[in-house]
Amino acid sequence: MESLKLDGNAAAGLLREVFATEITVASGTCDGCSSVSAVGALVAYTQAPGVVLRCPHCDDVLMKVVTDGERVWIDLRGLRSLQL
Amino acid sequence: MARAAVLGRLTWKVAEAVEVVPETARVKTIRLDVPDWPGHLPGQHVDVRLTAEDGYQAQRSYSIASAPGGDSLELTVERIDDGEVSPYLTDELRPGDRFELRGPVGGYFVWEPSRGGPLFLVAGGSGVVPLMAMLRHLDGEGDGIAATLLLSSRSWEDVIYRDELERLNGGETRVAHTLTRSQPDGWKGYSRRVDPAMLAEVGPPAAERPHVYVCGPTPFVEAVASALVELGHEPSRIRTERFGPTGG
User: Fold this and answer.
1) ipTM of the complex
2) What values do phi and psi take at A18, rounded to 5?
3) Of B1, B45, B218, which has the smallest distance from its Cβ to A5's Cβ?
C-alpha cells in the first residue's frame, strides 16, 4: 500500500473542479485526533474509484471525492472544520 | 496568492506543443503554447488529459518545469514504460500537436521569494522538475536567497537538467548529486541512497530553519522526510510531493 500513498496536493485538480479556491492550502481539522493539517499535506489515495484523503497523524478518513465525469460526490465526514 | 481568493471554475484548455527537447534517454521537456495561460507559481502542476478515438480518457499530473513569467509553459515528462500518457508525450508528440490541459493547480508544494530562505530541495529522479522551477525562479529574482539541491539519480546519464544544474551550481545555489547505481570514472560525489548523514552534510542545519521541499517516488519521499525530522527539521517546514504508480 505504501507506494500507492500520495499527498493531498495530488488531488488539487479534482478539488478545483469542486471548490472555486485553491483548497490544498486550506487547513483541515481532523475530527478524530484534532490535529490540523493543510489539505495538500494530507495522505491521498487516488487509485480508489475516487480520491480518499486521510489524516497524516491518525490515518482517519477526512475527505472522499468521487466523480463520474458529470457529477461529484463529496464526503467530508471526518473533517471537523476547514479553514480557508 | 490570497488564501481564499476565488479562482473560478477550473476548465480544460487546449495546449499546443511548440518544441520537444530530450533531457535524458527517458525524459523529455515539452514546451507548450497555452492560450490565456494565467501564470503559475514554482512547484505547481497541471493535469493532462488524452482522449482516444473511442472516447477513452486518461489523465495524469505533471509538474511545471519553467519559471513563472516566461512566455511559454514547460513540462518535463519521464517515460513510464507501461504508462498510458507519458509514452505518448515522450515518443509520439510532435510540434504542432495538441492535447488538453488544465491548471496550474496546487498551492501547497509551492515556493515564492516572499517566503524567504534558505531553501533545501531534495529530489529523487524526475522529482527534480518542480524544484527546478524554484531554482530557475531564484536564478531570475532570487535576491540572495540561498538554496541547496540534493539530487539522487541512477547514473550520471540519468541526471535531468545536468548542464543547467552545473551552470547554476555556485554562489547562492549549491547542487549536490548522488548516483545510486553507477558512477562515472573518477566520480567524487555520493554513490548511495540519500540518508541522514548525507542530508546533514549537504543541507543547511535545522537551526537555520530552512524551507524544505522533497519530491520523488513515494518510498524516497518517506525515507527523506523521516530522516529530516530525525535531524531536527520542523515537520511543518517540510513539504512533500510523492510520485505514485499512476505517474505514467
Assistant:
1) 0.85
2) -100, -45
3) B218
